[in-house]
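Review session, final week

We close the course with one last complete record, chosen because it touches almost every idea we covered. It is Threonylcarbamoyl-AMP synthase, a protein from Vibrio spartinae with 202 residues. Go through it on your own first, then we will talk.
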Amino acid sequence: MIVCTLVASSSEHMRSIVNNFEQVLDALHQGDVIAYPTEGVFGVGCDPDRPDAIQKLLEIKNRPVEKGLILIASSYAQLQPYIDECQLSAQQLAHVQASWPGPVTWVMPASDRVSVWLSGLFDTIAVRVTDHPQVQQLCEAYGKPITSTSANLTGQPSCMTTEAVQQQLGHCLHAILAGQTGGRDKPSEIRDARTLEILRQG
């Protein structure tokens, strides 16, 4: 089990995990957990098709598997294997795609490919095509989406900078993609693709 607490980490360890792009990619391929900047806050993520990687992430966050996770991608095509488009009308899909790339996460019907590790107790999956250039590049290079949840320990504020991630989570992570967030001061808005209802204000 991974146990993370808010502690001061050595500067040597901090330097070793703030990696270059290729090292961050390698961490994903190895099934490890990374942190990266998004449109609003830093996120932590991993390969969405590796239950072992998702379990590491959930332990770091102390997050119940029942809640499910968000997927972020560089394009809608990367998300399609995880979505059951047959349950959505052309108009509903048009609403979704009109908001992307951008900081809007949509809850959509999940395909059979989606495991309980991703969807939790739901038959839906939360997905987003990011407009953050570094994350776009990361997902493009990795060839698939990555999971996304805010980079913070339970009860601590979401991290807005590389330094904050280092302080809170550096000792729990294998790699941090250093960079700037997109300037928003909140996590992404979440909407239901079938009803267009706003589930979380962004």
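Two points worth writing down before the exam:
Confidence is low (pLDDT under 50) at residues 1-14.
The longest helix spans residues 51-61.
Good luck, everyone.
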